[in-house]
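We treat protein structure as text, and this decision shapes the records that our systems exchange. Below, we set out a record of this kind in full and without editing:

***
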Amino acid sequence: MEVNEWRERHGGRITVGLTTAVAALSILVGIVNITPTPLRPFPGVVPSVASPVVEQMAAFTGVLTGFLVLTAAFALRHGLRSAWYATLVLLPVTALQGLVQASPHSLLLVVLSLVAFPVVFANGGRYDRPTTLTDSQLAAGAALVGVQLYGTVGTYALRDEFRGIVTPMDALYYTLVTASTVGYGDATPMTQSARLFGMSIVVLGAASFALALGTLLGPAIEARLARALGRMTTKQLELLEDHVLVLGYGRLLTESILTDMADRTSFLVVTENEEAVAELSDRELNVLSADPSDDEVLQRAGVERARAVVVATSDDAEDALAVLTARHLNPDIRIVAAAAERENVEKLRRAGADVVVSPAVIGRLVVESALDGRGSESTVGPTDVEADE
């Protein structure tokens, strides 16, 4: 049982850590091994068919794979299922690339990749968040890949009309430098048809790169800025489901509630406290900078899809208004409120709270327990803390 608890608590961290280590090692090993004469610590294990050209190719692609694994590790931190699948595919690739490179530096990459694979596989249950891409994002990605395939296949088919194009890798190289408008000039068209084809790569490549940057990276940048300002995007809010809405922020009560909920359920804090918004955003918690008693705000926050509402600031009047709004928008939702003043417990109940807890009463029980032994843990019940089911 202790082993299972330890794995449950630390499995995610170990998975992300190992994946990040493999990514960093793949990048470093690839950079070191992009040389004309890579070292061979274990000749015979790697067949002689792995020529220096193949080893250099493995080193170059190893750097690219390392960056892909690093991206997957970042996505694993956010619980994405697609990142888990991608990591399972990429880890054998990094091991194979390390084996082909056959250098003193690649041995550790092979071992670490093989060790990381079963760890990532065993912790697959942690990564269940779906990856949601819009139609425009899918179209932009398809356009980017399609243009590169078009350019590579077309250039290789017309290789006799180009100077410097011999292999498919040469064709891919020409396509990339042309589509990105770099154009080094070491591979050039020699006929009219080849020039026209090269012009089409420039036009389509530039357009696909611009479309991909705007469509794929734009929402990510927007989401990052919105999170920093406490303004979650519409897409992020729509993804929230079966979450807990925390209306308002009180330093004492709300903070303890967030700590308890952090590992148990998803939640969204709605508050106008700019200082709290900045602090919660820095901690990468879901926070919306808005009035927690506004109908439109609670609708955007998904009060109809939420599992419960918690109201626990130090201002009973604001809490009552937030309770009234939440109850009006979702008559069936469970609402729990904390009353700063004991005399406001009944008012919060009438406002629509299912459960009202008064910290003042809890404090009185603690004092009574200290003075005369009353209010011990075994005797405190719902009535003692002014809770009403």
Remarks:
- The chain has three domains: 2-126, 135-228, 235-357.
- The radius of gyration is 29 Å.
- Confidence is low (pLDDT under 50) at residues 38-49, 374-389.
